[in-house]
Write a structure and sequence with these properties.
The complex is a heterodimer of chains A (112) and B (111). Chain A has 112 residues and is mainly beta. Helix content of chain A is 0%, strand content 57%. In chain A, strands 2, 4, 5, 6, 9, 10 and 11 form a seven-stranded mixed sheet that branches. By secondary structure, chain B is mainly β. Chain B is built from no helices and eleven strands. The chains are: A mainly beta (112), B mainly beta (111). Chains A and B meet through β5 and β10 of A and β4, β5, β9 and β10 of B.
């Protein structure tokens, strides 16, 4: 595996479900990010982790819970989501917090 | 006013045309500027990176930054159908933890 990988690629869940998104980077980077991409809107930064420490939480609702066990892995735990949370969720990594970001393919989430 | 403004298009041009994509921004602290290309059902991939003002060329792609006007451009020469994608500008300030993205411009190159 190379670059940034994300699983699952597609996810359909009900509003009462609990699921997790996984991201793994094989680039030796120290910073990892979660973004939300909705139609006709700019990429929205959700969370930033730098050396496993959360350095940014962009006023994200608590139904989204990130976890970064090490510099290579990032999770986004989802529970009691709303239909408006349906979007493409992108993970990215960079060498440092100000460096070029490399994106994964995303998880397309549909909340019913 | 949004920090970064980008016309979402869609923009449709014939194969071989020169394409110009642009973003304007309001934060004078932005120092580094990027263009990402995103194909349908894929994540964004870095196309060009520029630090401060000036031009940068890479094959058929040229990125320009005019900090005095707070305006950045991406030019695509000899456009190909494979260039059809959404192009996102992104920028960041020195010492900041994050990039700010434009909305993205959807581009179609017609054979």
């Amino acid at each position: 595996e190379t670059g940034v990988t994300q699983t699952p690629r597609h996810l359909v869940m009900g509003m009462t479900n609990k699921k997790s998104l996984k991201c793994e980077q094989h680039l030796g980077h120290n910073a990892m990010y979660w973004y939300k991409q909705s139609a006709k809107k700019p990429l929205e930064l959700m969370f930033v982790y730098n050396f496993k420490e959360q350095t940014e939480n962009n006023s994200v609702p608590s139904r989204f819970s990130p976890e970064c066990p090490n510099s290579s892995h990032l999770f986004l735990h989802l529970h009691t989501l709303q239909p408006e949370d349906s979007a493409l969720y992108l993970c990215a990594s960079s060498q440092g917090a100000q460096e070029t970001q490399y994106f994964g393919p995303g998880t397309r989430l549909l909340v019913l | 006013q949004k920090e970064v403004e980008q016309d979402p298009g869609p923009l449709s041009v014939p194969e071989g045309a020169i394409v110009s994509l642009n973003c304007t921004y309001s934060n004078s602290a932005f120092q580094y500027f990027m263009w990402y290309r995103q194909y349908s059902r894929k994540g964004p991939e870095l196309l060009m990176y520029t630090y401060s003002s000036g031009n940068k060329e890479d094959g058929r792609f040229t990125a320009q930054v005019d900090k005095s006007s707070k305006y950045i451009s991406l030019f695509i020469r000899d456009s190909q159908p494979s260039d059809s994608a959404t192009y996102l500008c992104a920028m960041g300030a020195q010492g900041a933890q994050k990039l700010v993205f434009g909305q993205g411009t959807r581009l179609t190159i017609n054979p």
